[in-house]
């Protein structure tokens, strides 16, 4: 999914892999991204797209973050 200004404004939380991704969103979408809650997962962006290890790591980190917020994941 491509990130759009509309999707950033719509989201309760935006998860990114690295700090530079957060900064890219802030540069691209300005105030909309600065007002958004953007969580950096600290996962190096050195993986091939859809790598099974990457997908599993992101799934785990996002679930952990949502659990901290008491958000139930299906």
What this model shows, in words?
- The protein is mostly helical and 74 residues long.
- It has one domain.
- The chain is built from 3 helices and 2 strands.
- It has a two-stranded parallel sheet with strand order 1-2.
- Helix 2 links the parallel strand 1 (14-16) and strand 2.
Q: Which structural class fits the helix and strand makeup? A: mainly alpha
What topology, given as strand order, has the largest sheet?
A: 1-2
- The structural domain count equals 1
User: In percent terms, what proportion of residues is strand?
Assistant: 5-15%
The count of strands amounts to: 2
Chain-wise SSE layout:
Layout: H1 5-10, E1 14-16, H2 19-35, E2 38-40, H3 52-68
Parallel strand pairs: 1-2
List keywords for this structure.
single chain, 74 residues, mainly alpha, two-stranded parallel ribbon, 54% helix, globular
Short structural description:
The chain is mostly helical and 74 residues long. It has helices spanning 5-10, 19-35, 52-68; strands spanning 14-16, 38-40.
